[in-house]
Structure prediction request, 373 residues.
Amino acid sequence: MVTVQAATMLQPGEIALREYPKPEVAEDALLLKIAAVGVCGSDKHMYAGKMNLPWPVIPGHEFSGVVESIGPKANGSMKIVGGPLQEGDRVTVVPGSQACGKCWYCIHVPHRPQLCPNRSVFGFRTSAEAPHLFGAFSEYLYVPGDAFVLKLPGGLSMERAALTEPLAVAQRAVARALAPGVPYAGEGFGSGARCGVMGVGPIGLFVVASLRNMGAGEIIAVDMSEERLAFAKKFGATQTVNLSKLSREERKEQILSWTDGVGPDVVIEAAGVPAAFEEGLDLVRRGGKLVEVGHYGDPGGVEIRPHVVCNKDVDIFGSWAYPQIQFEPALDMLLRTPLPIDDIITHRMPLSQVQAGIEVTGTGDCLKVILEP
Ligand SMILES: [Zn+2]
Ligand SMILES: [Zn+2]
Prediction:
């Protein structure tokens, strides 16, 4: 029997390589040979026991790979950008399956498929049942017929393509601040808009890069790590504010001094720290937009003064994942951006070092760990 190695989380804090039989693909499915997979903050949360999942789970939802084998009906059942697919094609796959099409959300708000409760997501669904390989911390990923697959443009490296998923998260957060249809400047995000980004870990850095890519003016990065702030400048931040060096009042004064005394047009919270949301609300200008994309986990609450929301006439948006097609503009940006995108990959490791990769994520000068199975 040919076997496949996959890093399996048996329970929080316990991850090890396990062998699985190499599956035959169903008529509508394909088997993907994983080339590169990113370690995400949520993998770390999972490892730390902050996610309630049906164990065991093979983590890994940010990946690229090569089609190893494909069922005869896969091109008919899957949604494919750049298709049809054949063996040997280089692709990335949206981790979330297609929405069910039948639930309340699918019927009423089909343009927000990420609200469908009946989706399954690679890297978070259980690997208990055959064919098991539903996460990308593995030599192979089993891609069922309800997948959304994108062929990689020529010239885009496998490693860079593994950044598509977190970039899609960031692009969607920026897109939430757009004000479609408004015919005058000063509403929402737009060319020259002044933006604040609270927290510049990998998602915050991709938010900075997306803002720059979409024509932002001043981009003010706020973080407590001098290294991350320096890196944010490489991705297009124009000003940086170090939380650990300035008091709350001092940093507000600083940010107001760069924004005509009114505050940024758009503030995006990507730190995942409740206090950063409250500070973002304090900083955003009246009539501005505040976007929350940092809280995929739940670290607790913060006190909000509703009067501020009312008086500021501010728009507050949550941003949860993305519609699947967000991967297309993310790939396009990865292909064309002049920013040194690959520099965000600070660690490259073999699959056997998955535990070390998870442990180093979110510490010191680590930005993105890529595993190469
Ligand atoms: Zn992720
Ligand atoms: Zn649904």
Notes: The first strand starts at residue 3 and ends at 11. The chain has a mean pLDDT of 96.
